[in-house]
Amino acid sequence: MSIKVKTRKILWSKSGNRCAICKKHLVQKFDITDANFIVGEECHIISSKENGPRGKVTKLSDYDDNSNLILLCANDHKLIDDFPETFTYEILVNLKKNHEKWIENAIEKDLQEYLRSTNNLEILDEIKNHVQLDIIIKNTHFHFFDSSSITDTNLSIEVSEFFDNLRDLSDIYSDIEIADKTKYLIDHIKQINKFNESGIRFFGKDLIREYKFLNNPKENYKVAMIVAFNPEIKPESIKNEKLTVKIPDDFVPTF
Questions:
Q1: Residue 202, Cβ neighbours under 10 Å: how many?
Q2: Which distant-in-sequence residues (6+ apart) come within 8 Å of 28 by Cβ?
Q3: Angstrom distance (rounded) from CA 192 to CA 147
Q4: Span 195-214, pLDDT tens digits
Q5: How many CB atoms lie within 10 A of CB 240?
Q6: CB 122, CB 151: distance < 8 Å
Q7: Does the predicted model carry a pTM greater than 0.85?
Q8: Given this model, what pLDDT does residue 252 score?
Q9: Who's near 89: CB < 8 A, 6+ residues apart?
Q10: What is the DSSP letter of 217?
Q11: DSSP-derived 3-state class of residue 29
């Protein structure tokens, strides 16, 4: 059997075109001819041959499946196959997993930085539990709460009251016991769940923004940003439980 085109695409995309060990870029340029050349190799974690590297670990139905492949440079490919006692099956599986997660996180971070810097956009996570809510409002200096997508008057008033209560909780957050904080946070999540039943979803994150007040020098301040969003207004703004929103150019949070 041979590695399928689809499997190759998955492996290279998840690996970010970099070696899982040394992180070297696997498509390089030959300056003299201005041509690209590939130094990456699609390596089997478990060899299909019993006497091959890690070949005795277990039998696989498909040795060319993505789960049994790791993307490496030629040097590191030779390294793992010459020293299978060091680079065991467990170690290589963890290397693959950690590398692909590193790539995913790095791309997500760069994407958010790009959107923020070029279009003043933010990507907010859907709030589903009290731990998320705790991270957003803990040690907050300012708030930015938005419910402009809600057209139902009664529902809009209820959400505004919810935001007022959340702002009050944030103001006293550092003065209350952990058990009480947890109780209040869970109560707020229960309210969010009720709003969910009405079709309103809540998204948020904590932002660090630089502000200058009076004659004081600029400093970084934490802003709790939460948006109550009606998906019927602009469903394309939500993807994978994340909401992309444009921050107003005159973005000014409130105490």
A1: 26
A2: 36, 37, 39
A3: 13
A4: 999 999 999 999 887 766 65
A5: 7
A6: no
A7: no
A8: 60
A9: 45, 46, 54, 57
A10: P
A11: strand
